[in-house]
Amino acid sequence: MNLDLTKLLAGSTNSVDFEFKLTQEDCEQLAQDFPQTEFDYPMVLSGNVSACEDGTYDVKISSNVGFSEPCARCAGPAHAELSIYIETKAIRGSKTEENEDCLFIKNRELDIIMPFFEQIVLEYPQYGILCKDDCKGLCPVCGIDLNKKSCNCRAKTVDPRLAKLSELLK
Q1: 108 — alpha (psi -120 to 50), left (phi > 0) or beta?
Q2: Which of 13, 46, 47, 168 is most exposed by smallest CB count within 10 Å?
């Protein structure tokens, strides 16, 4: 999805505000990158592009992205939200070493979806999310959900490397 910058580039306005509602079809790449994650739709992407005196353009993009996936400890349902905020420059021209961090305006349009997806990938929790902060997880021996029931497996098993230390406690 591209943002039309014709009026901004012609000088008829100094900034262009936008708001896009992304549907599940618009976000197929996210579904491929995160197969176990269900994103909340529509995703509302808003911001603006404004002209600078040096011939570049300031680009600001923000969104709150809600998503659900299995809890990293107990595999139960978990929900979280990412606050995405991007502030970058856009330029006309071709890519060089000096401007490789900029967005590029092509055919009077600016692609704001790809930087948005890239930021989601960068900010996505690396080790998963939890259903609650004090989630106890699953018992490593019997597999019971320790949030719902308790078991005695932990008392029975001692790591053989720590067996001598446990004798000191007796």
Answers
A1: left
A2: 168
Dihedral sign from CA coordinates of 120, 83, 39, 71:
positive
**CA-CA distance, 1 to 32, in Å (whole number)?**
18
Structure tokens at 132: 């609650």
Q: Are 78 and 129 in contact (CB under 8 A)?
A: yes
| Tokens 């400890």, residue located | 73
Residues in the chain: 170
CA distance linking residue 161 with residue 18, whole number of Å: 60
pLDDT in tens, 36-68: 999 999 999 999 999 999 889 999 999 999 999
The verdict on 67 and 140 lying in the same domain is no
One domain, residues 128 and 163: no
Domain of residue 86: give its range: 2-135
Strands 43-51 and 15-22: antiparallel
- The answer to whether residues 141 and 124 belong to one domain is no
